[in-house]
Write a structure and sequence with these properties.
By secondary structure, the protein is an alpha+beta fold. Helix content is about 30%, strand content about 15%. The chain is built from 11 helices and 11 strands. It starts with 20 loop residues before the first helix and ends in a 9-residue tail after the last strand.
């Protein structure tokens, strides 16, 4: 699930904690950055980690909360503390799942191995999971405009909002069809929960197959996205059932790993995305509350500061074409190899995901005018947001 929540753009998160008690304390010290543990703090943490109690997470969370209240912290220190403490929250669902816990000991021998006990397809139940009475599972034909529109309406009314509930992602039908129908996609992994007299769609989750390389190991995984439950049913705890059901469906295809993102901290992150913004219409962004006008800066000067040049300065820049797919595939995969964890794309996937589609995806190459060689490539996709509380502006 892609998240770009306003107020969470530098959402740093720590990895699973290392093995020994002292390493755990050192890891916390590093993560808390300028916050210095005194001797008493370290003794208290050691006592918590070595207790072996069932509520270690809760104790560490309370310790960090007390620490924030006792010490005089500046804004940045409080912000840093606020990123770490959620890792030690109690999670009714995730605490029961095969994911690393913040307090668990992870040693070298644990790395690059499955977290869960290895299973076979015949050990996975064939029938879907039980759901509350009055609801039923429903596969979604995302290529059908009417069914995709149902998903669009569910998401546009109930999906990700910013911290202040001012903006909500507005994924368009064409975007959803593009994102969820890569080559070899499994229709059984795009499904939801329906109910009521009109068989309304109350929940949705999606999975698509991806080739992932992690620490040099190549694996076929599922990329899970667009988990959404109607606001009126949040108390029914449908989200965990959707996650378990998509897990069952993926496991039935002999796949045992998945990747996903979240705008909140859930146990236990392995990576973080930082979003950087380049204002294109600063006046509107200030008016809707997305940006703030800097102190003592007139709007006219602010607009002038962000004014775009009339034309690009890159010689040979042009939109990507079908003939560019082989070289873009090669350059993209070469670039991604520098990361410990990355997706590997084949030419069919590059053609699907990166060839330009208006208001969905824009891709450009730089072609050397002397040699006709493609030297560079970049792309960006289009994701509007609904503006929830403004009389004039409705879309960002």
């Amino acid at each position: 699930m892609e998240e770009e929540k306003k107020g969470q753009n530098d959402n740093s998160q720590i990895n699973s904690s290392p093995g020994t008690t002292q390493e755990k304390i050192r890891a916390l010290e590093e993560q808390l950055d300028q916050l210095k543990f005194d001797h008493e703090d370290k003794e208290k943490l050691t006592e918590i980690f070595e207790s072996g109690a069932d509520n270690v997470n809760e104790q560490v969370h309370n310790f960090l909360k007390d620490m924030g209240e006792k010490k005089k912290l500046n804004h940045m220190q409080k912000k840093q503390l606020g990123k770490i403490a959620p890792l030690y929250d109690t999670h009714d669902f995730w605490d029961s799942q095969p994911v690393p816990k913040a307090h668990e000991k992870v040693t070298e021998s644990d790395l690059d191995k499955p977290i869960d006990v290895e299973k076979t397809v015949d050990q996975i139940r064939e029938e879907p999971l039980d759901i509350p009475p009055g609801f039923y599972w429903s596969n979604i034909n995302i290529e059908n405009d009417e069914e995709c529109k149902e998903v669009y309406e569910l998401l546009t009314q109930n999906y990700v909002e910013d911290d202040d509930n001012m903006f909500r992602f507005d994924y368009q039908v064409k975007f959803l069809q593009w994102a969820l129908t890569p080559p070899g996609y499994n229709k059984d992994w795009l499904f939801g929960v329906r109910g009521g007299k009109k068989n309304k769609l109350f929940g949705f989750i999606s999975g698509i197959p991806v080739d992932v390389t992690a620490n040099g190991k190549h694996m076929k995984m599922a990329e899970i996205n667009f988990l959404c439950v109607h606001k009126s049913l949040r108390t029914k705890r449908l989200a965990p059932v959707l996650i378990k059901e998509v897990t069952r469906r993926v496991n039935r295809c002999d796949m045992w790993q998945a990747i996903y993102t979240a705008g909140i901290v859930i146990p236990t992150p392995i990576a973080v995305t930082t979003y950087w913004h380049r204002s294109l219409n600063p006046k509107k962004l200030v008016e809707v509350g997305f940006s703030a006008l800097p102190k003592d800066t007139p709007m006219s000067r602010f607009v002038k500061l962000y004014k775009l040049p009339a034309e690009t300065s890159i010689v040979g820049l042009r939109p990507m074409e079908k003939k560019d797919v082989p070289v873009v595939t090669k350059k993209l995969n070469t670039f991604l190899q520098q990361f410990k964890m990355h997706i590997q794309f084949n030419e069919a996937e590059v053609a699907h995901f990166l060839l330009p589609q208006e208001w969905v995806i824009e891709s450009f190459v730089v072609e050397d005018p002397k040699t006709d060689e493609i030297t560079d490539f970049f792309s960006f996709y289009s994701l509007p947001s609904s503006i929830l509380r403004h009389d004039t502006h409705k879309t960002l």
